[in-house]
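User: My collaborator sent over this chain with a note saying "see what the structure looks like." That's all I know about it. Can you take a look?
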Amino acid sequence: KKLDNTQIKSLLDSSIASLEKSNFQIQDVEDRLNQLLIDLDSKPGILFSIIRIALSGAPASPGLFDTLHVLGKETSLKRLKKASSIL
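Assistant: Without extra context I'll predict from the sequence alone. Here is the result:
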């Protein structure tokens, strides 16, 4: 299913809001994003792909939760916010 820019921006903004409250430990990031999937009635292939592309610029990367943890809160949120602002 193709998403338009408004839908992608909405998913990114929801992800940012959730991750801003995270301590960026792997388990916390995983718990928050999995809860976001439930709250948004989304699928991992959609939400996680959008986050992954915003973080790394590529549709494939090492595990998303590990990537967020390694990049850290400041860098991850900066990249997500930049992607959202472009949309």
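A starting point for your reply to your collaborator: The radius of gyration is 12 Å.
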